[in-house]
Design goal:
This protein is an all-beta fold and 112 residues long. The protein has no helices and six strands. Strands 1, 2, 3, 4, 5 and 6 form a six-stranded antiparallel β-sheet that branches.
Length: 112
Amino acid sequence: MQKLARGNGSTTDSSSFVSIACPVINLAVEEITSSANNLKVFPSPVNDILNVSSDQKIISVTIFNTAEQLILTKAINDKIAAVDVSGLVSGIYLVKINLDNRNVKTVKVIKR
């Protein structure tokens, strides 16, 4: 009979917890800039207002949680935007920026 692998990669039963290595995700804590169209998303971590700016016109900003559930969408039609995120709970969010040239950028932002 084949033994099942445990969560730590072994097939040995254990009556105590065994530490395992967990990968660490590097989250941005500074202004995020993309040089292709001078896109800026700041601050991160954010408290209330998330600022987005670009050399290209920003069509919309959409925010998703890490489970990729839609949280909010805001139409912009300008090169700068201030998005009110004060109602969001603390955590990590994905911010999708749709630009005029059909270019789409997604960045991670931390909400305090």
